[in-house]
Amino acid sequence: MPETEKKAPRVINKSGTLKMDDKTAATKQTRDISGKRMDRRNRRDRVRAEAGPKEFDEITIAVDRVSRTVAGGRRMRFKALVAIGNHKNKVGVGVAKGNDVTTAVAKATSKAKKSMITFNMDGETVCHETRTKVTGADVLIKPAAPGTGIIAGGTVRSIIGLTGVKNLISKSLGSTNKVNIAYAVIEGLRQQVPRKEWNGVKAEKAEAKVEKTEKSAAKKASGKETK
């Protein structure tokens, strides 16, 4: 009798089904419930593409729970204070309320993007000293030498950290309300004027121009007299 060929042993999975070999798996057609053939190329890619780098970084400075008394009782909501910046010379602050924290933060971020400002810098510090008041908040901002770092409190440090300012001295002299302090910092950055546009520099340039014109006029007059 001819020798019987040895059959490959059956491999059973944990679910109780037979494990297919590589050849069977390569030729097997996948079908749906109705029996139609499914083409794998038409399947939606389940791996999401990685999101690109963000243009602006955002930070949630404070989230408070607020209430409003109405006829039926109290309505509780959340108020979020958010700051955004590009680590250069653009920064913005937004405040918004929502029924939950996520909604409040999203609305505040949208407001911050709409109210962004572009301010002037002198290297890695501010151009000059400013003192701004917004309602009860009173914030003093002063330039600092390289290597000083950011010497400021919580709210001011959070906002300045989203800008390109690396050296700064700040002091809060009034209210401790975070919202008012945030708006005072934004106003102080908005008031920054570059050195070349200071009044003293303009006056010096004007005086230099007058001296040049006087000297040129004197030279012309002396030249005519010699002739």
Automatic annotation (TrEMBL):
GO terms for cellular component: ribosome. Pfam families: Ribosomal_S5, Ribosomal_S5_C. Gene3D superfamilies: 3.30.160.20, 3.30.230.10. Residues 19-37 have a biased composition (Basic and acidic residues). Residues 56-119 form the S5 DRBM domain. It comes from the Bacteria. Keywords: Ribonucleoprotein, Ribosomal protein. Residues 1-48, 204-227 are annotated as: Disordered. The keyword Transferase does not apply. Belongs to the universal ribosomal protein uS5 family. This is Small ribosomal subunit protein uS5.
